[in-house]
Amino acid sequence: MKKEFTCIVCPMSCHLTVYNDGDKIVVEGNTCKRGKVFGENEFTNPKRMLTTTVRIEGSHLKRLAVISSDEIPKNKMFECVNELYKVTVKAPISRGNIIFHNICSTGVDIIASRSVKKL
Questions:
Q1: What's the pLDDT tens digit per position in 24-41?
Q2: What is the number of other CB atoms lying within 10 angstroms of the CB of residue 114?
Q3: How far apart are CA 22 and CA 114, in angstroms?
Q4: pLDDT for 69-102, tens place per residue?
Q5: Alpha-carbon distance 46 to 39, whole Å?
Q6: Per-residue DSSP letters for 3-49?
Q7: CA-to-CA distance for 116 and 56, rounded, in angstroms?
Q8: Which residue stretches, if any, does this entry annotate as coiled coil (predicted)?
């Protein structure tokens, strides 16, 4: 099976062709080592950072911006976002506070990306 990707690791945006050669994964078209790693990961288990918002009470804001502490498998993104729709936090919140620990058993925490004072 052969797949093609555009690398998103650096501004070069290399066009990658990735395929299996026996039990080895071959990446062609990359101009740096990071592109090779990106191509291998996209071919076997693509992951992305998750950025979204959760409800917040006791603040002048209605939503708190959050981000994952590490990349989450793409096939778990909707499940994670649906879990975060259920979350409501209370102010005050400090940047870096863990909002959701080990979301959807991925081993990744969801953390606040800004501080919010209590009204």
A1: 999 999 999 999 999 999
A2: 13
A3: 47
A4: 999 999 999 999 999 999 999 999 999 999 999 9
A5: 9
A6: EEEE--SSTT--EEEEEEETTEEEEES-SSHHHHHHHHHHHH--EE-
A7: 9
A8: none
